């Protein structure tokens, strides 16, 4: 069980659910659900091992994508990223995956599917959001940061390609010690989407990320 001494301090804006074991095809995790007291959104933390407060913890913050996470959609890279992250955390023996209810980069499912419709008409993922009157990315990482603080985690090795996610967490007092790229091989359905994320949203993808990985291994020689 996690020490709940800090319960009075964290989480301020979240209700904490029961802690249970979750045996999965990736390994066994502890599962804790959380609910945002303001908007009612429910998030999940899957925890492996005992994160150490003084050490950096391997963390994946994963935004919900019903199409990719549940139905294996090839339009994005979400499903494979989710599964790769769980495999990596299991392999490391310690880490946390936070599944945030931020469908469609925070605009919700109805709006994301409208954005998909626009993408079928030739808009890219950024312009489709803008055309609908949204920002390119409406996510906020306050809940994620609160969950991490609740778990006594303040330093993370973050599995992401997304610079906004790193900034979003830092803004709420989480130190991103390292950023670990989570690269999924593009397919013909998501190549343009991934290219747009690289060119317009600053994602460290494809060649840049492969180069980073290579450099990391070269440093170890
Ligand atoms: N609005 C919109 N949302 C999308 C589209 N494609 C995927 N998404 C959403 O984008 C989000 C992707 O989340 P993540 O995989 O956590 O994050 P990311 O920003 O791609 O960054 P990584 O950490 O590198 O994976 C999910 O909420 C998806 O539902 C799209 O074309 N339009
Ligand atoms: Zn997706």
How would you describe what is shown here?
Pfam families: GTP_cyclohydro2 (PF00925). One of its GO terms (biological process) is riboflavin biosynthetic process. Its cofactor is Zn(2+). The chain has 221 residues and is of the alpha/beta class. It has one domain: Rossmann fold. 37% of the residues lie in helices and 22% in strands. It has helices at residues 66-71, 78-92, 109-120, 125-131, 142-150, 163-170, 191-200, 206-220, and strands spanning 14-16, 20-24, 27-36, 42-48, 57-63, 95-100, 155-159, 175-180. Strands 1, 2, 3, 4, 5, 6, 7 and 8 form an eight-stranded mixed sheet that branches. Zinc ion binds at residues 65, 67-68, 76, 78.
Quick structural overview:
This protein has eight helices and eight strands, in the order E-E-E-E-E-H-H-E-H-H-H-E-H-E-H-H. The protein has helices spanning 66-71, 78-92, 109-120, 125-131, 142-150, 163-170, 191-200, 206-220, and strands at residues 14-16, 20-24, 27-36, 42-48, 57-63, 95-100, 155-159, 175-180. Helix 6 (163-170) links the parallel strand 7 (155-159) and strand 8 (175-180).
User: How confident overall, as mean pLDDT?
Assistant: 89
The fold-level CATH name is Rossmann fold
Helicity range: 25-40%
Strand content: 15-25%
> How many β-strands, per DSSP?
8
Order of helices and strands: EEEEEHHEHHHEHEHH
Bound molecules: guanosine-5'-triphosphate, zinc ion
Shape: globular
- Assign the CATH superfamily: GTP cyclohydrolase II
Overall CATH class: Alpha Beta
- Our Rg estimate from Cα atoms comes to 17 Å
CATH architecture: 3-Layer(aba) Sandwich
Structural class by helix and strand composition:
alpha/beta
Sheet with most strands: 8 strands, mixed
The quaternary organization reads as single chain
Number of helices: 8
Family: Belongs to the GTP cyclohydrolase II family.
Catalytic activity: GTP + 4 H2O = 2,5-diamino-6-hydroxy-4-(5-phosphoribosylamino)-pyrimidine + formate + 2 phosphate + 3 H(+)
GO cellular component, one term: cytosol
Function: Catalyzes the conversion of GTP to 2,5-diamino-6-ribosylamino-4(3H)-pyrimidinone 5'-phosphate (DARP), formate and pyrophosphate.
